[in-house]
Every structure is written in structure tokens, then in C-alpha cells.
Amino acid sequence: MTLLAPGARLVDAETGAVLDGPALIIEVERRADELAALPDGVLFARTGVDLSGVLTYVAAVQAGRAVALFDPALDVPVLARLIERFRPSAVLDAPAAEPPPGYRAAGGKWLRLDPDGVRPHGDLAVLLPTSGSTGNPKLVRLSRKAILTNAHAIADVLGIDEREVAPTTLPLHYAYGLSVLNSHLVSGATVVVEREGILGRGFWDTVAAHDCTSVAGVPYHYEMLRRLRFDPAANPGVHTLTQAGGRMRPELIAEFDKLMRSAGGRMFVMYGQTEAAPRMAIMPSERLAEKIGSVGPALPGGQFAIRRPDGGDTTHPKITGEIVYRGPNVMMGYASTAEELALGDECGGVLPTGDLGYLDEEGFLFVTGRLKRIGKVFGNRISLDDLEAATRATGLGIDIVAAVAADDKVVLFAEGAEADTCKSASHALSDRLHLHASGFDVRPIDTIPLLASGKIDYQALEDQV
Q1: Where is each AMP-dependent synthetase/ligase domain found (predicted)?
Q2: Taking Cα atoms as reference points, which of 191, 173, 265, 256 lies closest to residue 219?
């Protein structure tokens, strides 16, 4: 299997440039040859939503070079710590800053001076960070097989073929955004590389100009589109909306499902994690109205089970526990050091998701909560513990803080803080993590509740959200 199927097209919305057919193949192979010539080691790619970033990623996969994708807005000190841990062969599209020790700047890259490096495992294709830029993310190791089988499964369920045209609405270093790109390229479809995103002033003009047929969004996007009174009749070419990146309000799902059906279109609710490359389930659009709240059955080739408290797995309906997914798209494992990039498959196709949920009588999955201390801000997975530490590090005098997940944002309770201080903390977190301040709801509280053990009573705080 290859990432570029015959007919695949890339369109740069900003310049109007089109790459397809032999021209696309030649450009990808040219870049692949350049990457293949670099010394052993993983490649770090700061991938913006632009044509060059897309081509760099596709070329790395084509060349068989393991590539880690990062937000180009990642703070240089954070990037430097990652470089120290993983010793990449090169940092592509490097920052305009002094390279770290052991690297030299050349041609827009930081190149490792030592020609000897850890050769990643031969199956390894893509690495994505687990927790944004909070400081010390692990990397999810995804094989070529996982990436490609997941892309084909998504395309199969959504009915993606060479007639489809999808704009980029999400970053490539975010698994959902990457999966939109992958599933269209393997289907010989068109991807319009659009920089502004769904809420950008020119986005819908681009959608109309290039006859886009689908739009992908996270819950926050749909909240904003509702406020803007999205009307599918104003965009008649768009017949498919997809949603992933966290649980969306059932009433909002129902509203957009009704809107799309009234215009002859489709709404798909999906479920996934970076560790599953990323898609695990897609709710069939024709069943959405009758099963609001479900994310659907497992993708073709995958299956769900529920882990009971005794550690056993079951597929019996209406039993709530940790969701366990099995499939060919499960990650190889995590990596925290360069040496771990050389490891093989440590998961065996089994992924305990850390999410809570249950199956119904038809095997449709309902996600009810999270088992682990992970939240999502506009679809980005964030460590709640790291977020608490980041709040304490703002210099605003917040010493006692507790973070709880609340759908597509995080609520942080700051003990003894004034309202103005909480507002400043929200903006400080926004600046550090490059996400909108509304995703960090910092609230004053007189006293944070504690358990008898002296630990924070997070359940009591969740009850206040």
C-alpha cells in the first residue's frame, strides 16, 4: 500500500498551485531522495498547514523515514528538550534561532553533526506527541501499516473516492487533521491546503471556489458554526460533515444532523485517539438520529470490548468500564528516548483507551467519560497534571490549583485567587499552549475539597462543572 493513489491532487488555496499526476509524483520523489540521504535517526518536521509541510510529510513516508510531526509554534526551549531526548537526524523547517549543541543550521534545517544515530525500527513511519506542548510529551509510535490501514478503513466507511475534495481544517501534527489528509490521498481524492481554518474569514470562500465536498471539525468548531448560523444551503457542494476530537453535546449533534439531512447531506460522529492512528469508530450517518450519543461500531478490521473491574473483557451490552480496542491500526507503543524508537511492536494490536463507556445490543459504542487524567482542549489531548503545573508557573501567585476535564475545555479551580488573576491565568495558558483562552476556564474557589487521604477530591470538583 502507498499513501498516494492514482488521481490524488494537492491544491494550494493561497497560490492556486495544483500538484497532481506525474508532477506530484516527481516532487514527492525529489523530496524523498533528499530525506533518504540524511544520516540515521528520526526526522523532526515542524509541519504548518501549508503545501510544503504536506509534501514533506508525504515524502518522508515515501522514503521510509520515520518522521515526528510537531507544531511549528512549539516553543524553542521545548523543541530543544525533545531534540536532546531523541537526537533526530534533522529538524526540517527549523526555527530562525541558534541550533542546539550538536547541530548546525543549513538550508532551513538543523542537521545533527554526529553521523551515527539510532536507526528507528523498520516498521515505524510516524510519531506524534501525546500531550501537546506542556513540556515533556511522549511520542506515539505509529507503523506504516497502522497509518495506511486506518486511512483505507476511514475512506471505506465515509465513501471517499476520487470525486471528493477536502479542505485542511486542522493541523497535520494533530492526528485528526493527518487522518483527513491520509484518507483522501489513499483514495485518489483532492486535498485543498487551506491555512485559515473553519473560522477564518476566507475559509468558506475557499470551500466554494474549489468545490469542496466535506468539512472536518472538532466540537468547538461546531459550537462556533452554530453561533454563526451555519446554513448548508449556502454551501451546496458540501455534502459531508465529520466530527471527532472529543465528545460533542448531544443536542448540537442532533442540530447539525438535522441541518445536513434537510440539505441532502450527511453528518458523521467519530471516535479515536492518536494511539489508534487515530480512528476507531464512525457512527453511520443514517443511524445517527436514532442513536444520538453513540460513536458507532468499530471500524472494519477493529473491535471493541469493555474491561470489567476484575480485569476481564466483555462485549455484553450495557456494562460500563474501560474501553479496549483491538485492530491493525493500534500503535507500536510509546517512545520517551531515542533508543525506544528502535523497539518493535509492544502493543500487539491491543489498546486500553483510558476512556469509559459501554456497548449496546448492536455493538455500538457509547463513551461516557475518561479513566485517566487527560483532558481535551479543542480536540488537543492535554495532561491535566501538566496543566496544573503550568498554571502554578505563571507567576500570578496561584499555588493551589486543580484541573478537571469538561468536554472540549479544561476547568481549573484556583484556591484563593481573585477573578482578575484567574482571567490572567487563562490568557497565560493560552499563550503557552497556543490554544484559545476560552479552552482554559480558570475559576476562583475558597477551598479546594480534599479526600481523607489529603488528595484533591476531583470528583467533587467535576460535580461543580
Answers
A1: 58-334
A2: 256
Reported as a pLDDT band with limits 50, 70 and 90, residue 247 is: confident
Whether residue 253 contacts residue 278, with contact meaning beta carbons closer than 8 Å, is answered with no
Tell me the C-alpha distance between 144 and 121, whole Å.
Answer: 11
Is residue 278 reached through a cis peptide bond, with omega within 30 degrees of 0 on the bond before it?
yes
| Residues 251, 293: Cα–Cα separation, whole Å | 9
Q: 334 forms bridges with which residues in the sheet?
A: 140
Strand ordering across the sheet containing 350-359: 294-296, 365-370, 350-359, 321-326, 303-307, 313-314
Residue ranges of domains in the chain, CATH in brackets: 1-371 (3.40.50.12780), 374-462 (3.30.300.30)
Beta pairing class for 240-243 and 266-272: parallel
Q: Three-state DSSP class for 101?
A: coil
Kind of pairing between the strands at 90-92 and 109-112: antiparallel
pTM value is 0.83
Average the pLDDT over 272-282 and give the result: 97
One-character DSSP codes across 1-25: --S--TT-EEEETTT--EEEHHHHH
Q: Which candidate, 182, 185, 175, 214, places its Cα nearest to that of 198?
A: 214
